[in-house]
Amino acid sequence: MCTMDDSFKIPKLSFCITCKDRFFQINKTLPQNLDDNKLYKDLIEFVLVDFGSQDGLRDWVLQHFGMELSEGYLKYYYTEELPFWHASIAKNTSHLLANHDILVNLDCDNYTGHNGGRFIIRQFLKHGEDIFIHQYGGGFSDGSYGRIAINRDYFFQLGGYDESFEPMAYQDTDLLDRLQALGLKYRGIPDEKYNRAIKNTKEEGLFHVKTNISWDEKFYQNMEK
Protein backbone atom coordinates (compact mmCIF):
# COMPACT_ATOMS: atom_id res chain seq x y z
CA MET A 1 0.00 0.00 0.00
CA CYS A 2 1.09 3.56 -0.66
CA THR A 3 0.83 5.46 2.63
CA MET A 4 0.19 9.21 2.72
CA ASP A 5 -0.03 9.34 6.52
CA ASP A 6 -0.78 7.00 9.40
CA SER A 7 -4.55 7.12 8.85
CA PHE A 8 -4.90 7.05 5.06
CA LYS A 9 -3.63 4.43 2.62
CA ILE A 10 -3.99 4.43 -1.14
CA PRO A 11 -3.99 0.97 -2.72
CA LYS A 12 -1.89 0.35 -5.79
CA LEU A 13 -3.25 -1.42 -8.86
CA SER A 14 -1.97 -3.97 -11.38
CA PHE A 15 -3.52 -4.41 -14.81
CA CYS A 16 -2.91 -8.08 -15.67
CA ILE A 17 -2.67 -8.75 -19.42
CA THR A 18 -2.19 -12.01 -21.32
CA CYS A 19 -1.47 -12.34 -25.02
CA LYS A 20 -0.71 -14.99 -27.63
CA ASP A 21 -0.38 -13.86 -31.25
CA ARG A 22 -2.75 -10.91 -30.85
CA PHE A 23 -0.32 -8.21 -31.95
CA PHE A 24 -2.95 -6.81 -34.31
CA GLN A 25 -4.99 -5.87 -31.22
CA ILE A 26 -2.50 -5.16 -28.47
CA ASN A 27 -0.58 -2.75 -30.71
CA LYS A 28 -3.70 -0.59 -30.48
CA THR A 29 -4.66 -1.08 -26.82
CA LEU A 30 -1.30 -1.10 -25.00
CA PRO A 31 0.02 2.31 -26.13
CA GLN A 32 -3.35 3.90 -25.44
CA ASN A 33 -3.68 2.29 -22.02
CA LEU A 34 -0.18 3.31 -20.97
CA ASP A 35 -0.82 6.87 -22.07
CA ASP A 36 -4.25 7.01 -20.43
CA ASN A 37 -2.85 6.07 -17.00
CA LYS A 38 0.56 7.75 -17.00
CA LEU A 39 -0.46 10.53 -14.59
CA TYR A 40 -0.86 7.89 -11.87
CA LYS A 41 1.92 5.50 -12.80
CA ASP A 42 3.30 5.68 -9.27
CA LEU A 43 0.14 3.76 -8.27
CA ILE A 44 -0.30 1.58 -11.35
CA GLU A 45 1.58 -1.13 -13.21
CA PHE A 46 0.81 -3.06 -16.39
CA VAL A 47 1.88 -6.71 -16.31
CA LEU A 48 1.97 -8.25 -19.78
CA VAL A 49 2.63 -11.98 -20.18
CA ASP A 50 3.38 -13.05 -23.75
CA PHE A 51 2.74 -16.76 -24.23
CA GLY A 52 5.11 -17.45 -27.09
CA SER A 53 3.74 -14.99 -29.64
CA GLN A 54 5.35 -15.35 -33.06
CA ASP A 55 3.90 -12.18 -34.59
CA GLY A 56 6.55 -9.68 -33.54
CA LEU A 57 5.08 -8.69 -30.16
CA ARG A 58 8.29 -9.19 -28.18
CA ASP A 59 10.48 -7.08 -30.48
CA TRP A 60 7.81 -4.36 -30.63
CA VAL A 61 7.53 -4.12 -26.84
CA LEU A 62 11.30 -3.99 -26.34
CA GLN A 63 11.80 -1.42 -29.08
CA HIS A 64 8.98 0.96 -28.20
CA PHE A 65 8.55 0.86 -24.43
CA GLY A 66 12.05 1.02 -23.01
CA MET A 67 11.25 3.89 -20.64
CA GLU A 68 8.07 2.25 -19.34
CA LEU A 69 9.94 -1.01 -18.79
CA SER A 70 12.84 0.69 -16.98
CA GLU A 71 10.40 2.55 -14.73
CA GLY A 72 8.47 -0.62 -13.88
CA TYR A 73 5.29 0.99 -15.19
CA LEU A 74 5.21 -1.85 -17.74
CA LYS A 75 6.44 -5.33 -16.89
CA TYR A 76 6.87 -7.78 -19.76
CA TYR A 77 7.29 -11.54 -19.46
CA TYR A 78 7.75 -14.08 -22.25
CA THR A 79 7.23 -17.83 -22.00
CA GLU A 80 6.79 -20.75 -24.38
CA GLU A 81 5.52 -23.10 -21.67
CA LEU A 82 1.87 -22.79 -22.73
CA PRO A 83 1.87 -24.02 -26.36
CA PHE A 84 -1.93 -24.18 -26.44
CA TRP A 85 -4.09 -21.44 -24.99
CA HIS A 86 -5.75 -22.03 -21.63
CA ALA A 87 -7.51 -18.93 -20.31
CA SER A 88 -7.42 -19.85 -16.62
CA ILE A 89 -3.73 -20.77 -16.63
CA ALA A 90 -2.80 -17.66 -18.58
CA LYS A 91 -4.78 -15.31 -16.34
CA ASN A 92 -3.46 -16.89 -13.16
CA THR A 93 0.08 -16.44 -14.46
CA SER A 94 -0.32 -12.72 -15.05
CA HIS A 95 -2.02 -12.22 -11.69
CA LEU A 96 0.75 -14.16 -9.92
CA LEU A 97 3.40 -11.88 -11.44
CA ALA A 98 1.57 -8.70 -10.35
CA ASN A 99 2.85 -6.80 -7.32
CA HIS A 100 0.06 -4.47 -6.26
CA ASP A 101 -2.98 -4.50 -3.97
CA ILE A 102 -5.74 -4.54 -6.60
CA LEU A 103 -5.55 -7.04 -9.46
CA VAL A 104 -7.48 -6.26 -12.65
CA ASN A 105 -7.86 -8.73 -15.47
CA LEU A 106 -7.36 -6.71 -18.64
CA ASP A 107 -7.74 -8.76 -21.82
CA CYS A 108 -5.31 -7.66 -24.52
CA ASP A 109 -8.19 -6.27 -26.61
CA ASN A 110 -9.50 -4.06 -23.78
CA TYR A 111 -9.06 -0.35 -23.11
CA THR A 112 -8.89 1.05 -19.59
CA GLY A 113 -10.26 4.45 -20.53
CA HIS A 114 -8.67 7.76 -19.52
CA ASN A 115 -7.39 7.42 -15.92
CA GLY A 116 -9.15 4.05 -15.75
CA GLY A 117 -6.79 2.78 -13.06
CA ARG A 118 -7.54 5.76 -10.83
CA PHE A 119 -11.27 5.15 -11.38
CA ILE A 120 -10.97 1.60 -10.01
CA ILE A 121 -8.76 2.64 -7.09
CA ARG A 122 -11.34 5.24 -6.09
CA GLN A 123 -14.05 2.57 -6.00
CA PHE A 124 -12.03 0.53 -3.51
CA LEU A 125 -11.30 3.63 -1.44
CA LYS A 126 -15.00 4.48 -1.38
CA HIS A 127 -16.44 1.02 -0.74
CA GLY A 128 -13.63 -0.81 1.05
CA GLU A 129 -11.53 -3.87 0.29
CA ASP A 130 -14.37 -6.41 0.63
CA ILE A 131 -15.73 -5.81 -2.86
CA PHE A 132 -14.99 -6.96 -6.37
CA ILE A 133 -15.68 -4.89 -9.45
CA HIS A 134 -17.12 -6.20 -12.69
CA GLN A 135 -16.82 -3.71 -15.54
CA TYR A 136 -19.07 -5.67 -17.90
CA GLY A 137 -20.99 -3.45 -20.29
CA GLY A 138 -23.89 -5.90 -20.59
CA GLY A 139 -23.71 -6.37 -24.33
CA PHE A 140 -23.48 -9.83 -25.84
CA SER A 141 -19.86 -10.48 -26.82
CA ASP A 142 -18.85 -6.86 -26.23
CA GLY A 143 -15.47 -8.05 -24.95
CA SER A 144 -15.75 -6.63 -21.45
CA TYR A 145 -17.11 -9.60 -19.49
CA GLY A 146 -13.72 -10.63 -18.13
CA ARG A 147 -12.90 -7.19 -16.70
CA ILE A 148 -12.78 -8.13 -13.01
CA ALA A 149 -10.96 -6.21 -10.25
CA ILE A 150 -10.17 -8.00 -6.97
CA ASN A 151 -8.15 -7.42 -3.83
CA ARG A 152 -5.07 -9.64 -4.31
CA ASP A 153 -5.48 -11.40 -0.95
CA TYR A 154 -8.96 -12.59 -1.86
CA PHE A 155 -7.84 -13.66 -5.34
CA PHE A 156 -5.15 -15.93 -3.91
CA GLN A 157 -7.37 -17.11 -1.08
CA LEU A 158 -9.72 -18.49 -3.74
CA GLY A 159 -6.91 -19.95 -5.81
CA GLY A 160 -7.64 -17.71 -8.79
CA TYR A 161 -9.26 -19.04 -11.94
CA ASP A 162 -10.09 -22.76 -12.11
CA GLU A 163 -7.33 -24.40 -14.13
CA SER A 164 -9.17 -27.74 -14.28
CA PHE A 165 -11.71 -26.24 -16.69
CA GLU A 166 -11.79 -26.72 -20.43
CA PRO A 167 -9.38 -24.10 -21.84
CA MET A 168 -12.03 -21.48 -22.62
CA ALA A 169 -15.50 -20.41 -21.46
CA TYR A 170 -17.20 -19.84 -18.10
CA GLN A 171 -13.98 -19.23 -16.12
CA ASP A 172 -14.95 -15.61 -15.45
CA THR A 173 -18.47 -16.45 -14.27
CA ASP A 174 -17.08 -19.16 -12.01
CA LEU A 175 -14.68 -16.70 -10.39
CA LEU A 176 -17.46 -14.14 -9.91
CA ASP A 177 -19.64 -16.80 -8.25
CA ARG A 178 -16.88 -17.90 -5.89
CA LEU A 179 -16.12 -14.31 -4.90
CA GLN A 180 -19.77 -13.81 -3.97
CA ALA A 181 -19.80 -17.11 -2.09
CA LEU A 182 -16.82 -15.85 -0.10
CA GLY A 183 -19.01 -12.97 1.07
CA LEU A 184 -17.56 -10.16 -1.03
CA LYS A 185 -19.89 -7.53 -2.43
CA TYR A 186 -20.44 -7.44 -6.19
CA ARG A 187 -20.19 -4.04 -7.81
CA GLY A 188 -21.17 -3.96 -11.46
CA ILE A 189 -19.89 -0.80 -13.16
CA PRO A 190 -20.84 -0.80 -16.86
CA ASP A 191 -19.41 2.66 -17.50
CA GLU A 192 -18.55 2.76 -21.20
CA LYS A 193 -15.77 5.29 -20.59
CA TYR A 194 -13.77 2.57 -18.85
CA ASN A 195 -14.70 -0.77 -20.43
CA ARG A 196 -14.39 -0.42 -24.20
CA ALA A 197 -12.97 -3.42 -26.07
CA ILE A 198 -12.16 -4.56 -29.59
CA LYS A 199 -14.77 -7.14 -30.51
CA ASN A 200 -13.76 -10.69 -31.42
CA THR A 201 -15.62 -13.67 -32.76
CA LYS A 202 -15.71 -16.94 -30.80
CA GLU A 203 -13.64 -18.49 -33.59
CA GLU A 204 -10.88 -15.92 -33.04
CA GLY A 205 -10.94 -16.66 -29.32
CA LEU A 206 -10.40 -20.37 -29.96
CA PHE A 207 -7.57 -19.96 -32.45
CA HIS A 208 -4.80 -21.33 -30.19
CA VAL A 209 -6.97 -23.70 -28.13
CA LYS A 210 -6.33 -27.44 -28.45
CA THR A 211 -9.82 -28.90 -28.44
CA ASN A 212 -12.25 -30.87 -30.55
CA ILE A 213 -15.41 -29.40 -29.06
CA SER A 214 -17.19 -26.12 -29.72
CA TRP A 215 -17.14 -23.05 -27.50
CA ASP A 216 -20.74 -23.76 -26.45
CA GLU A 217 -19.83 -27.31 -25.44
CA LYS A 218 -16.89 -26.06 -23.39
CA PHE A 219 -19.15 -23.48 -21.73
CA TYR A 220 -21.71 -26.05 -20.62
CA GLN A 221 -19.08 -28.57 -19.54
CA ASN A 222 -17.35 -25.99 -17.37
CA MET A 223 -20.65 -24.70 -16.02
CA GLU A 224 -21.75 -28.23 -15.09
CA LYS A 225 -18.43 -28.84 -13.35
Written overview of the protein:
This protein is an alpha/beta fold and 225 residues long. The protein has one domain (2-224): Spore Coat Polysaccharide Biosynthesis Protein SpsA, Chain A, CATH 3.90.550.10. The protein contains 9 helices and 9 strands. The N and C termini lie far apart (37 Å).
Please give the number of β-strands.
Answer: 9
Q: If helices are DSSP runs of H or I spanning 4 or more residues, what is the number of helices? A: 9
* Low-confidence regions: none
Q: Main beta sheet: strand number and arrangement?
A: 7 strands, mixed
What name goes with the CATH superfamily? Spore Coat Polysaccharide Biosynthesis Protein SpsA, Chain A
Order of helices and strands: EEEHEHHEHEHEEHHEHH
Alpha-beta content class: alpha/beta
Radius of gyration: 17 Å
What count of structural domains?
A: 1
N-end to C-end Cα span: 37 Å
What's the SSE blueprint?
Blueprint: E1 2-5, E2 8-10, E3 13-19, H1 23-36, E4 44-50, H2 57-64, H3 66-71, E5 74-78, H4 87-97, E6 102-105, H5 116-127, E7 131-134, E8 148-151, H6 152-158, H7 171-181, E9 185-188, H8 202-205, H9 215-224
Parallel strand pairs: 3-4, 3-6, 4-5, 7-9
Antiparallel strand pairs: 1-2, 6-8, 7-8
